[in-house]
Amino acid sequence: MSIARTLLLRASRSTWLEEQFRRRSFARRAVRRFMPGEDVTSALDAAAALAPARIGSVLTALGERVTTRDEADKVREHYDGVLDAIRARALPTHVSVKLTHLGLDVDRAFCTASVQQLADRAAATGTMLWIDIEESHYVDATLEIYRAVRARQARIGVCLQAYLRRTPKDLASILGVGGSVRLVKGAYAEPPEIAFPRKADTDAAYFALAQRMLEAATSNQPQVFGTHDLALLDRVRDRASALHLAKGAWEVHMLYGIQSAAQRSLAANGVSVRCLISYGTRWFPWYVRRLAERPANVWFVLRSMVSS
Ligand SMILES: Cc1cc2nc3c(=O)[nH]c(=O)nc-3n(C[C@H](O)[C@H](O)[C@H](O)COP(=O)(O)OP(=O)(O)OC[C@H]3O[C@@H](n4cnc5c(N)ncnc54)[C@H](O)[C@@H]3O)c2cc1C
Q1: Sign of the CA dihedral 180, 185, 189, 195?
Q2: CA of 293 to the centre of ligand 1 (A)
Q3: Ligand 1, closest atom to CA 132?
Q4: Confidence (pLDDT) at 1
Q5: Ligand 1 center from residue 110 Cα (angstroms)
Q6: 156: left (phi over 0), alpha (psi -120 to 50) or beta
Q7: Contact 35, 45 (CB under 8 A)
């Protein structure tokens, strides 16, 4: 892992830096590159604006590691409202949640009940709930909660990270029960015994895992490739064509503000594409992870600072 990436990922956990950064107008301007606004209405409006280009969306409220039941309950209530708004506006929009935002660190049974309730409500709304994946020490708990909820509600999918050495086993167990996975490369700082330190190894692991997902993909068990790596996506697409997969059996998900032209071009060429739109005031750790993915992005922050 590069030194810049390591330093940025460390910085993403600093509450002091978060305080300093959030108060500055240049920082709020820089973050707008990756999110349409802090409020949910901006995110819903962005989702509506993408729909005519046949780009679906996934909404996620920023926040993680809440420490009280009360906070976690408010997050669940917030998502109830988001699902109602998706239905009211008839948007082609899914929802993605972080389990530490829904109280995983506070009470696992309570968190499971919240996920079950949101998955049931998402299904009743005609949409789908996704579970993000966080640092590696949360993976066991995340997959246990996913399995418990999935046993009663099929409209739920979970993210897996290609950089983790354990992922081939996790993927096999999820595909074995008919589950849907969103495969990403992985965004956190992890030790080498847990995650591949070299990007080339992560990229190779991603394609190997993607092939297994494509072999399992059907319209009832759609598989998702969450990446902006266009060369990798070309290989995924070739493999999907060779398998004669039906449209809807696999999708590409990308983040708002990244590879926007490619999102449009893929959608125009018949690939199912969704854009993950984040919003909220607790954007600092998430935003610094976006900088760490491409340390060249730091120049945007510096430019915003200079022009402020
Ligand atoms: C839909 C979606 C959901 C995700 N959910 C999770 C999750 O739950 N858990 C998790 O750990 N990670 C998650 N991630 C982040 C993921 O793990 C990677 O950190 C991130 O996607 C960068 O890797 P990449 O696959 O785009 O490939 P890379 O090889 O890193 O990037 C490929 C190309 O994409 C462009 N690019 C990539 N990132 C950026 C950026 N930040 N700014 C500008 N250009 C960029 C560059 O042109 C780069 O050359 C998610 C990503 C996506 C797209």
Answers
A1: positive
A2: 6
A3: 8
A4: 65
A5: 30
A6: beta
A7: no
